[in-house]
Design goal:
The protein is α+β, with helices and mostly antiparallel strands. The chain has two domains: about 1-60; about 70-140, DNA polymerase, domain 1, CATH 1.10.150. The protein contains five helices and five strands. The protein has helices at about 40-45, 95-100, 110, 115-120, 125-140; strands at about 5-15, 20, 25, 30-35, 50-60. A hairpin with a 2-residue loop joins β2 (about 20) and β3. The longest helix is centred in the last third of the chain and has 13 residues, at about 125-140.
């Protein structure tokens, strides 16, 4: 029997014409959904964003070596390879993934073959994103 914890979920919608903050630039209407344990919450808890609490979600506390099925969404870190798409890592927002795709970064291997400086040279990609991305790709 696994222990599960209900996590509060929030949807943040940009209500400003545009917003630029630490490692984030967005336009009015940009939306993101986060759980209460997400370290990025502080980015969105400001007057430029409207917060809406959603139905809670369940976070499983079972060991990562116990995948719940055979689809890609259930991959454990040991199953992620260089061919894994960056979107399958689950650590980046859709706008950041779009920026990376436009710059021809689509797989874990694409990131592994580049340097932090290469990634920082991409317009719209900041140090925090590079750190998160490099960490996720090095663990894979």
């Amino acid at each position: 029997m696994s222990n599960n914890k209900l996590l509060k979920r929030f949807r943040y919608t940009c209500i400003a014409a545009s917003y630029t903050g630490p490692n984030l630039h967005c336009q009015r209407g940009f939306k993101v959904e986060l759980t209460e344990d997400d370290p990025r919450l502080w980015l969105f808890r400001n007057p430029s964003f409207e917060e809406k609490e959603l139905d809670p979600t369940v976070e499983s506390t079972t060991a990562p070596s116990e995948p719940s099925g055979d689809n890609d969404a259930d991959k454990t870190p040991a199953e992620i390879t260089g061919d894994t798409l960056l979107e399958d890592l689950g650590v980046l927002s859709k706008p950041i993934l779009a920026i990376l795709k436009k710059a021809e970064y689509e797989t874990v291997e694409d990131v592994r073959m580049s340097t932090a400086e290469d990634l920082l040279a991409i317009s719209g990609i900041g140090q925090a994103t590079v750190d998160k991305l490099m960490a996720a790709c090095s663990e894979a």
